[in-house]
Amino acid sequence: MSYTLHRGDALTVLKSLPDESVNAVITDPPYNSGGRTSSERTGRTARAKYVTSNSAHDLANFPGENRDQRSYRSWLTELLTEAYRASTEHAVAMVFTDWRQEPTTTDALQMAGWTWSGTLPWIKPASRPRKGGPKQDSEFIVWGVKGSLDHSRDLYLPGHYIASQPRKGRVHITQKPVEIMQQLVQVCPEGGTVLDPFTGSGSTGVAALREGRNFVGVELSPHYADVAEQRLHAELTKDDFDLAGPES
């Protein structure tokens, strides 16, 4: 297996990818959410939005979190359109979102050409209760397909996922659990290529390599690109060591 990590703007890089060169798109874009008012969504950093004030970790911010609703939809539509062009027939796209941006995300997915096929809940047990109402313990994965699903594959995935955000070894504000990502990357045929235009700390890529898929990622933040590079390289090196066996 192999990986390629591009450093730079996602849309710019996506436009350079060849037609029909990837087999699945699995990504966690900046939600541009996290507030009840426009000023709360556009006037605060990612850390201020998504990390509680008494949090023990001190993780780096990431860019791209200050778009208003209309510019977010336009931007995401253009990105998913380029991802659609770069994907093969039967490719599946999976896009993480929260409850505020779920309607906008489904619009963008469909306007980009994908056939919207459902929304998968990701339930996080380690979340705070909300006094006076239901606790906000879920994010969502909007998914669609280019053309139709490949029904020749013997693949059956869950309709929801349950896992808390990583605590031990957490290196990103919105880091996703690798155990969930390992299930999601199976929508890509074995030996195929998974694309993640918002690589972050590299969890999608690590999962892809573990599951026998190639990976193409893009990351704008130099800090998180370095983190992802380290994690991807370590995963690839580990696989090489496992194949060779321990030294005598």
From TrEMBL:
E.C. number: 2.1.1.-
- Is Transferase among the key words of this record? yes
Would you indicate the residue range of the signal peptide?
none
Q: Which Gene3D superfamilies match?
A: Vaccinia Virus protein VP39
Q: Which UniProt keywords apply?
A: Methyltransferase, Transferase
Presence of the UniProt keyword GTP-binding in the record: no
Q: Which GO terms describe its biological process?
A: methylation
| Region entry Disordered, spans | 25-45
| Listed SUPFAM superfamilies | S-adenosyl-L-methionine-dependent methyltransferases (SSF53335)
**For the DNA methylase N-4/N-6 domain, which residue ranges apply?**
22-147, 168-229
- Report one GO cellular component: cytoplasm
Any one GO MF term held by the record is: DNA binding
What PROSITE patterns does this protein map onto? N6_MTASE
Do you know which InterPro entries this protein is assigned to? DNA_methylase_N4/N6, DNA_methylase_N6_adenine_CS, RM_Methyltransferase, SAM-dependent_MTases_sf
Family membership noted in the UniProt record: Belongs to the N(4)/N(6)-methyltransferase family.
Name of protein = Methyltransferase
Query: Species name for this entry?
Result: Streptomyces phaeofaciens
Species classification: Bacteria, Bacillati, Actinomycetota, Actinomycetes, Kitasatosporales
